[in-house]
Prior knowledge:
alpha+beta; Heat Shock Protein 90; Ribosomal Protein S5, domain 2; elongated; binds adenosine-5'-diphosphate
Amino acid sequence: MLMTTQSKHKFEAEVSQVLDLVINSLYSNNDIFLRELLSNASDAIDKLRFAALTDTKIDSSDPQIGIAIDKDSRKIIISDSGIGMSQEEMINNLGTIAKSGTKEFMNALKASKQEGFDPKLIGQFGVGFYSAFIVAHKVTVISRKAGSDKFTLWTSEAKGEYETETLSATQIDEYKVADLKQGCKIILELKTEEEYNEYLEEWKIRSIVKEYSNFIEYPIKLRTKDSENEDENEDKYIWETINSQKALWAKNKSEISPEEYKEFYKHISRDFNEPCDWIHYSAEGTNEFTALLYLPAKAPFDMFMPEDKKGLNLYINRVFITNEAELLLPQYLRFVKGLVDSSDLPLNVSRELLQANPKVTNIKKNLVKKILSKLSEMMSQEKEKYISFYKEFAKVLKEGVHLDFANKDKILELLMFESTQTESGSLTSLDDYISRAGESKFIYYITGSARKELENSPYLESLKSKGVEVLFLTDAIDEWVVMSGATYKEKEFKSAAKGELETDDKTKEQIKQKETEHKDLLETLTKQLEANIKEIKFSDRLTETLCCLVADEHAMSANLERLYKNANQNIPIQKRILELNPNHPVIAKLEEIFKANSNDTKIQDYAELIYGQALLLEGSQIPDLSRFTKLISSLML
Length: 637
Ligand code: ADP
């Protein structure tokens, strides 16, 4: 408990960093300060209404948000009838970075330092309350927590510190807050530079509210001169509602224009881009709800930051309940924005209990089904649009293949890859692959970091010569998608670099013959390389190259091994099979040398050279490079 009522505090270090950035006008868009403060006000009213569901002493009637401009003193005053904050809450909420929005901002910033991220993008980010300092040199917050009769004052000029105090009766009069039942009043003292003057103009405030806050559910009222009152000396003001407060989703689909949908998307997602598409529907029967879901067009750069992101908004009969991530959608659909309004969930259910509520589970199932079928429809009917969406979100969608077993095939159906038969940059679906593949039981793939590196891979030599199409899987997560045993429409995913390829009986017989022919040579080579490889054998995988390393059907590929190593993960070393091309002239030559002198150390050197080449071809490193190069040089001599 805080004993003193008046106190000076230092901002948490991270807050000071955020403030520095805000103040040094990193922002490309100053207007967002108002969006942020209005959305905080709206959240505070949401919280009040939620609290009123269980606490009858709380009066949540007549919710509203006010904006008043005082040109003479260069002030903008934003008030709300929300839940308010106690002194302790103010210290916690406004003096530290406890909140996700700001944390994301900090993470984005850290990421930006690592990878040349455009700082202008940060202008699209809300840093919540701290955005006030974009336009104000001093910010004062007066708050009365719902149910309390204390008023707390918080002031800061952002210079590393802030002050809080409990207001005395005289101060309550001075600040004209006596009639504030509960909520906050935020006073911004505008910076003196000319560029901020426009925020003292009504038209500017109206236009920002229209653009960013039109759909806030509570009336946003602007204090404006009463034009009917002609008495110039007597300032008469009226409060005019300047936002539409439409619950767009509750309207009939046919009455909503695409522009309205797009505008609402920007409101709900805080994305500056237009959405790729949307789904608006009502479910009836056992579970009644309306959903308005948006597929964004651009991936946010923080899509893979392990923060608990906000999920879909859940309303129960228009009362906002929660936007907890993963309550209504699985993680792999976290890019979907929007809301669900249910009419048959119990209003007084706690947020914790919602997760276990079977109705919520059903809604979730239904939403997933709808989204996947929307994507499938887009894929078949609006291919280009789908592909541009897919390129943004494929990495996330792919997580679903193993996380949502029930929908595995539906998700696989949505995946697209490059292949030996697509042009660079264009993609094919698995269905199209299958339709071209004829009788084959397999969907062939090869994994690596880029198409360019895979295109000329020796692992594809015989498949190419037989005209077999091979998918290029170049996302790290792809390895996981096609993990051993994975199938799609009864076709098994098969790596071109693992296990045995399909070989006809005649070729098998030829290989067997070659193995008998070179039995002793193969045994000697095996002995030399025993420590590194599992076995040596002839195969028809290669047609031009001498050798390659192949993993067992269910073992980890070299690509996956590298991914683990890059992530600093320790993995057990798995020996691979060294496959030789029996028709390569080097084999005949080796046999000659071997026959002439089977104890020659030359055979040992050649074994090392063969193994080294195979390592290089799979993209691995040669353990003793200097020895390897010496061997090559001596061979050249
Ligand atoms: P965020 O909105 O992302 O949580 P902010 O920096 O905007 O972060 O706000 C921090 C916290 O301060 C909010 O989570 C809320 O608890 C509190 N807060 C901000 N504005 C208000 C307000 N008008 N009324 C009540 N609480 C508020």
